[in-house]
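Protocol step 4 of 6: record predicted structures for both targets in the notebook before any analysis. Target 1:
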Amino acid sequence: MPDESSLQRVVVDTNVFIRGILSTTGASAQILDAIFRRQCLLISSRQHLSEIHRVLSRPCFIQRYSISPNQRHRLITRLYRLSIFVAPIGHLTICRDPKDDYLIEMALLGQANYLVSEDQDLHDDAGIIELLDDYNTRLIQAGEFIRHLPRP
C-alpha cells in the first residue's frame, strides 16, 4: 500500500457514491472500490456521511435495491473509518444550489486534489472552478477521475 502522503485527496459528491453503491459497474463503483482499497484518501464530514445515509434510507432505494438498515450502517461505518474528517462551518456561499456549498468547503478544508461530482451546476460554474483552482483542487467527473488513480 502506498504511503498516505502520496495518495490523492478526494471529495466525492453524494451522487457519485449513490451510483457506485447501486451499481457494481462503471466509474462510480470503481471510485468506491478505490476508496475501500485505499488507493486515494477520502475527505469527508459528518454532514456528508449523514447525507449518504439519508439518501440510501429513501423508500424508493430501499424497495428497488433492497438496501437494509444493516447494509447502510456497515457502509457508513466503513466510510467513516476510511475518511479524513473536516468540519465545514457553513459560511461559504458560492454555489447556485446552497446544498452544494459544503462540498466546496470540504475540498478547501481538506486540501483535496480533486472534487468528484456529476453535478452539472458545479461544472458549469466558472467561479467555482476558479476558486477550486486557486486551492489546487480540480473539479472532475467520475469517469475522468478513475484515470488518475494508481493501478491496484
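Target 2:
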Amino acid sequence: MRDKQRAMVALATGLMMSGTAAFAQNGNLTLLHDALHLTSAQEPVWKTYVAQTAKGDLAGSRRQAVSRLLPTLPSTRRLALIRAELEEEVADLKDMQRVLDTLYAALSPTQQRVFDAKTLPPSGSQQ
C-alpha cells in the first residue's frame, strides 16, 4: 500500500513539474523571456506567469513535507493526506492553466511556437 501511495504522490509531482514548471524551476525564465521578444503590452501578463511559476517552489516544499510525514501516519490518515495533497495539486494545476491560457492568448503565433518549443519537458522525461 505504501508503494501505491508514493506512486500517487510521485504522479502528482510529475504532472506539476512537466513543461513550464520544470522550465521555471531550472531557472530558464529569463532565457524564455528573451526568446519570446515580448512587447511592453505583454509584460504584465508575463509577470503574472512568472509569479505563478514561483508558487511551484512552495508546492515542492509542501510535497516534501507530505513525503516525510507519510511514514509516520496510520493507513487511514496517510490516505487522507495523499488525497488532500492531490487536491492541492489539482488546484495548483488549475491556477497554472488559467495563467498560462492568459499568457498564451497574449502571444503571437510565432511567440506561441517559441514558447511551445522552449517549454517541452526534457527528452526522456516520464512526465
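Step 5 preliminary note on target 2. The two ends are 22 Å apart (CA to CA). The chain has one domain: 2-118.
Proceed to step 6 after PI sign-off.
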